[in-house]
Structure formats: structure tokens, C-alpha cells
Amino acid sequence: MKKILNTKILNTEVFTKYNIFLFLIPIISDQTTKRMALAGLFENLNIDNKLSFEVSINRGISCGFFHSQNQLYFLGVSFLILCVLFFLLFHMYTQLKDGLSISYEILILSGAVSNFIDRIFYSGVIDFIGISFFGWSFYSFNIADACIVSGVMLMLFNKNKS
User: Which sequence positions are flagged as catalytic?
Assistant: First the structure.
């Protein structure tokens, strides 16, 4: 993990504003684009048969794993996701306490929180971005999913680098 050179930075206004900005911008972007997708603003939009937009509700986790219409099952999966969110918050707290950067974790957290907002209001996560190339189609996703994956990849890359 990248070490913050001066731990006094942790208490500065700039550091706090940076983290708040890094947390809020992905949530606002994700929630806005999901509302646009639900309103049909991306309907019938297909870019060179590689990028398409079609709304779906994912009641499971990544790539539709554990998807179920059973409400009790959905609540159980949602509870487990909430537990992971609290674990991530605790991890971030220990990172900050040790004077380490939490930028990647904030990216993951913002995506997870945005998707959890969907779980509360839509009983599932709104996915709408589809990618296809070389005859392969991938699971649809949203901006929050991209933030989570980017954050995890950056964490792994940074860990392997050190």
C-alpha cells in the first residue's frame, strides 16, 4: 500500500475533501446513469454491436451469481453484502490509522454503496451496460460495478508492486 508521507495530512481539509469527492462522484454518476437507463434514454442505443444498453435487475451478486426471486434468499444475500461493507469500513479505518492511503478502498466502497442503494429501492441492482466483441457477450454491468472492479484491480496491482 502506498504510505502517506506525512500522517498530519490525514487531518487536513484537502485530504478529507479528496476522499469525500472520491466517494460521492462515482455514486452520483452511477445513480444518475441508472435513472437515465430506467427512463429509456439509452433505449435502442447500440454502438457497432460492441456496446449496448439494456436494463436488467440483478438480485444476486456480481455476474448474476446467487440470483433468486425468493425474497428471503434476496434478504440473506443483501445481509451478507452489508456485512462485507462493514468489514471494508473497518479495513479502511485500520488503513487510515496506519497512515496508509484508502483511495482504492473508497472506490470499492462507493460502488458497493451505490449498488446497495439499488437493493433498497429496486429489490435488485440495476445493470444496463453490455459489452460484446469477437462473438463473446459479457454480463451487463453499471458504473458502480466498474468502480468496484477498478478498485480491486488497483489494490491488487499496488500490492504486487510493493
Answer: 127, 145
